[in-house]
Structures are given as structure tokens and as C-alpha cells.
Amino acid sequence: MPSLGRLHLITDTRPGRDPLAVLRAALPLARAELVVQVRVTDDATDREAYELAREVVARCRPYGATCLVNDRLHVALAVAAAGGHVGADDLPVPAARRVLGPTAVLGATAREPGTAVAAVAAGASYLGVGPCHATDTKSGLPDPIGPAGVRAVAAAVPVPVIAIGGVTAASVPALRAAGAYGVAVVGALSGAADPAATTAALLRALAC
Ligand SMILES: Cc1ncc(COP(=O)(O)OP(=O)(O)O)c(N)n1
Ligand SMILES: Cc1nc(C(=O)O)sc1CCOP(=O)(O)O
Ligand SMILES: [Mg+2]
């Protein structure tokens, strides 16, 4: 399995956002370092998720970037994405692994070491760990765990930890120092005035 990219761009399909424009800006800079997670709003249809994921897979391919699909693993399979990401309300990790097969990339959300260890034992190949910082992008999240929370999880598992939640280029150094392999962002890129410049800043921070 090729090594996982360190910059995870999660698509923002909320009204007024343009996920493909952000992707166009990020891809030529981040190339194989980019993992694009196709995440649609809960009210999106499977057809909408499929069309977006198909487009993302096609755009990622020439750059060697990776496309994953959030939650909807049948969509991941249908578009031949590299894998998917599941959390507490989605298919359990063992079931997700069965659906995706043994070689797919499978991410699981873990907020503390116990869940993290269980997710890895059940077949997760990386963990999304957060929320690291406060964020308006998703409601109903628990309190931020900060770099200390990331450190606790990263110390407990042998797989890459991807820090998520309110991540910006400025917060990357502390998260990396805490053991994060990479970061996942929504708002830092989808709300950026200059997504290319922000991608470059995130990549610089991740390279240190
Ligand atoms: C990299 C990464 N980490 C965590 C999540 C959150 O997944 P989940 O808890 O299933 O919540 P939703 O994204 O489905 O709302 C993620 N998507 N990616
Ligand atoms: C989708 C999601 N899941 C999170 C978790 O902690 O599980 S935080 C989050 C939103 C991340 O968006 P932003 O980069 O704009 O803060
Ligand atoms: Mg989910």
C-alpha cells in the first residue's frame, strides 16, 4: 500500500462553497501528499455523492493524489476510490473493512486511546483524531482535545494519526510535535481567500 498523504482536504459542499475550485488549487501543489475525502452533507443524495466522488477520483489520478469517501462506502466502491472513512454513526470498522476489502485505505474516527486501539485492531489503517480545536464546521462535537489529546492517541497506536478540527497552518507544528502524521481540514481551505497560498502554507508546516 503506498504511503498515506499528510494533507487531507475534506470537501465542503455547504451552500456557497466550491469544493472543486479548492481541489483545483490544491492538487498541483500537494500532488501525492494530498488525500481528498469526499464528504457531502447528510441531505445529499447518493447520486450527488457519487457524481462528486467520481469527479474527484478523476482529478486526483494524474497527480497521484488519493481519494477517500466519507461514510458512504458503497459510493467509494462504485467510483473505485482508494478507500473510506467511518465514525461512530457509520458502519463499524470490522464491517467497513469487509466492505472495502483488505487493501483499501480505511480511516476511523477516534477521540481517545481506547477507541483508537480497538479501531486499529479491527482494521483501521489510519485514525482521524479530534476535534483538536474549536470549529464551526460541524456541530455536536465534544470539547476540543488539543495537542495533548492527539499525543495520547498517537502514543497508543502504530498507524498514522490525522488531526482534525479547527486546524490551520499555524496549529500544525504543535499537532506534529504531538505525534500527528498529518492533518485534515475543511474550513482552512474552503474558506481561504487564496486556497493555493493556504495549501502551500499547510504543506510547509507539514514538512517540518
Ligand atoms: C480525517 C477525519 N477524521 C474524522 C472525521 C469525522 O468522521 P465522523 O466522526 O464519522 O463524522 P462525519 O465526518 O461523518 O460527520 C472525518 N470525516 N475525517
Ligand atoms: C468533519 C469533522 N469531524 C471532526 C471530528 O473531530 O470528528 S471535526 C470536523 C470538521 C473539521 O472542519 P474544520 O477543518 O473546518 O474545522
Ligand atoms: Mg461519519
From TrEMBL:
Binding-site residues, 2-[(2R,5Z)-2-carboxy-4-methylthiazol-5(2H)-ylidene]ethyl phosphate: 135-137, 166
Pathway the protein acts in: Cofactor biosynthesis; thiamine diphosphate biosynthesis; thiamine phosphate from 4-amino-2-methyl-5-diphosphomethylpyrimidine and 4-methyl-5-(2-phosphoethyl)-thiazole: step 1/1
HAMAP family: TMP_synthase
Cofactor section: Mg(2+)
Gene that this sequence comes from: thiE
Residue positions binding 4-amino-2-methyl-5-(diphosphooxymethyl)pyrimidine: 70, 109, 138
Alphabetized Pfam families for the sequence: TMP-TENI (PF02581)
PANTHER family attached to this UniProt entry: THIAMINE-PHOSPHATE PYROPHOSPHORYLASE, THIAMINE-PHOSPHATE SYNTHASE
Keyword set, alphabetical order: Magnesium, Metal-binding, Thiamine biosynthesis, Transferase
Domain of life: Bacteria
UniProt xrefs under InterPro entries: Aldolase_TIM (IPR013785), ThiamineP_synth_sf (IPR036206), ThiamineP_synth_TenI (IPR022998), TMP_synthase (IPR034291)
Ranges for domain Thiamine phosphate synthase/TenI: 7-189
A single GO BP: thiamine diphosphate biosynthetic process
EC number per UniProt: 2.5.1.3
Family: Belongs to the thiamine-phosphate synthase family.
UniProt catalytic activity: 2-(2-carboxy-4-methylthiazol-5-yl)ethyl phosphate + 4-amino-2-methyl-5-(diphosphooxymethyl)pyrimidine + 2 H(+) = thiamine phosphate + CO2 + diphosphate; 4-methyl-5-(2-phosphooxyethyl)-thiazole + 4-amino-2-methyl-5-(diphosphooxymethyl)pyrimidine + H(+) = thiamine phosphate + diphosphate; 2-[(2R,5Z)-2-carboxy-4-methylthiazol-5(2H)-ylidene]ethyl phosphate + 4-amino-2-methyl-5-(diphosphooxymethyl)pyrimidine + 2 H(+) = thiamine phosphate + CO2 + diphosphate
MF terms in GO: magnesium ion binding; thiamine-phosphate diphosphorylase activity
Record's cofactor remark: Binds 1 Mg(2+) ion per subunit.
Top-level EC class: transferase
Gene Ontology CC, one term: cytoplasm
General function of this protein: Condenses 4-methyl-5-(beta-hydroxyethyl)thiazole monophosphate (THZ-P) and 2-methyl-4-amino-5-hydroxymethyl pyrimidine pyrophosphate (HMP-PP) to form thiamine monophosphate (TMP).
Name of the protein described by the UniProt record: Thiamine-phosphate synthase
Coiled coil region boundaries: none
Residue numbers binding Mg(2+): 71, 90
